Amino acid sequence: MKSFIEFFSSVKLAIVLLIIITVSSTLGTFIPQMRSPEEYVARYGQLGNLLNGLQLTRLYKSWWFVFLLFLFALNIIVCTLKRLSPKLKKAFKPRIAIEEKEAAVLKIKEKLKNSLSLAVTKEGLKKELSSRHYRLRETEKENKTFLLARKRILGWFGADIVHLGLLTIIAGGIISGIGGFRRSLTFSEGSLLDVPRAEFKLRLEKFETEFYPNGAVKDWKSTLTVLEKDNPVLKKVVEVNHPLSYKGFVFYQSGYGWNWTNPSVEIWVKKKDDPSFLKKTELKLRQRVRLEGEDIDVAVLQFIPDFVIGEKGQITTRSLEPNNPAAFIEGWQAEEKIFSGWIFARFPDFDRIHSEKETDLAFELKNFKAGQYSVIQASRDPGVNFIWVGCTLTMVGLFFAFYWPTREIKAVLEEAQNKTGITLGGLATKSRDAFRSEFEKITTSLRRLK
């Protein structure tokens, strides 16, 4: 048992555990957390498999990280309990009667005599100490009077309050690691989704993207409604840095995108030999539309938001952002296909129309519309209140440890030959210069007693 206590109260163990936890947490800030295993493999290759295997992709929920927190908590508990008992005894059951030499060996000390009686001297000293907010204990032994004066006793327990705060933070971390979660929810306008581990649902009423004059995105706004048993109970506009909180769940605006499965495309039709000719046609994907005044039907068979030709010649999209929009169109006369090919919004002169039959028509991809979706990150952190309480306790403990140092004065009074001898000794855990100044004022006051 003794070896167990010695091991877990070791400062070296605390330092080693703290270093490992700090390094692990640092890794967790660089490695994106809680993504799918396939995403890590696609991003990091074989290293992704290693990260998944070591649970570095879900670090704060991994068994080994929780175990490290448990060991660190055990180290703090054993260390605190080992040192707490002597502190409690010193604070609440102090030894009052001391020898003169015990006071004389203190770094701050004074020895003096006056011609007053012991009773008058004692009352004068007690009055002076009480005026400076010292709490007094008194006893008598062998014709001597002993006084113990102390204040700011909580300063002794500053480190213990810090330890309690750290334990509370660790408890919050373990609770969050085991019971917390983060999940991305993808909404289209009007869609209703169940919130994981909750008894309510969310509906996206409206999604807006605001832009700066130069075209850069300024803000995303999602109007969300919380429903319980299909009844609306709360409605809020969620945007970046302005989340929705409800029953321990927090919903953040984390992204957006376009639903390109069924876009609306606007095509301008021109004639090469007639500059005044212009027909504007809006089409849905795979919808055949008759050109006004012509006997030709046009259809958009495919839309690519960010057109690129891959290494094997396949046509694909680099991203879901409309960086290089392109549409594949076909033209028909009755049931005869007369042309087909790609047209580009950014490069109208770079069309790739292949004509099966001679035509003087030219096509431009002028505009496109697609429904946007909103990505809302839902998170639940059941340990967050513990962490806030722990942080508060830690700050309080640091305040007591560094800015509320305990001060203690021991006095031995003895009457002999109608004079009273006084031996004073004092100590302070910190701010010794300030305490020395106070101690000197107390002794000066004693010398002036009449």
Summarize, please.
This protein is α+β, with helices and mostly antiparallel strands and 450 residues long. Helices cover 33% and strands 40% of the residues.
Protein described:
The chain is an alpha+beta fold. It folds into four domains: 2-89; 102-152 and 405-447, Sirohaem synthase, central domain (Double Stranded RNA Binding Domain), CATH 3.30.160; 181-259 and 374-393, no CATH class; 260-370, no CATH class. Helices cover 33% and strands 40% of the residues. The protein contains ten helices and 21 strands. The strands form five sheets. It has a five-stranded antiparallel β-sheet with strand order 1-21-20-3-2. α3 crosses α4. The two termini are 60 Å apart.
Task: Supply the key terms.
450 residues, alpha+beta, Double Stranded RNA Binding Domain, 4 domains, 5-stranded antiparallel sheet, 21 strands, 40% strand
List the helices and strands and how they pair.
Blueprint: H1 2-8, H2 11-30, H3 37-44, H4 46-53, H5 63-92, H6 100-104, E1 108-114, H7 118-131, E2 135-141, E3 144-151, H8 158-179, E4 181-188, E5 192-194, E6 201-211, E7 217-228, E8 231-239, E9 244-246, E10 249-271, E11 274-284, E12 288-290, E13 297-304, E14 307-309, E15 315-317, E16 326-333, E17 336-344, E18 352-355, E19 361-380, H9 384-403, E20 407-416, E21 419-428, H10 432-447
Antiparallel strand pairs: 1-21, 2-3, 3-20, 4-19, 5-6, 6-7, 7-8, 9-10, 10-11, 10-19, 12-13, 13-16, 14-15, 16-17, 17-18, 20-21
